[in-house]
Amino acid sequence: MNEMITIIFICIGVLFNIFGCIGLIRLPDVYNRLQAATKCVTLGCCSILTGVLFHFGISGAGIKAIVAIPILFFTATVAAHALIRGTYRFGTPPDKRTVKDDYKEAVK
Fold first, then answer.
1. Which of 6, 7, 74, 105 would be 55's cystine partner, CB 3.0–4.6 Å?
2. What is the pLDDT of residues 28-74, one digit of tens each?
3. Which domain holds residue 41?
4. Cβ proximity of 108 and 88 under 8 Å
5. Number of structural domains in the chain
């Protein structure tokens, strides 16, 4: 049963990572691409680490997975926000199909 849960979590993680890669290719501008990369890949890697936790249990590798999940979750989102804010301040315009620009009033 433990192996089945491990396989399910790792497969879900791989699928989310694949969706993030597809988002990097298909989305129109740097802002949407970074959002796809951050959300999908963060969830995918956390899911893979959860599968590692179920596979190894509370051992050295399992404890490292427990520690890595919140670190990855919080640092990836903060890093993506910093990258998007820096890209906006640098002057990279959003795609012409962008409906709403929340940074326009906040950054200028």
1. 6
2. 888 888 888 888 889 999 999 999 999 998 998 889 999 999 999 89
3. 2-107
4. no
5. 1
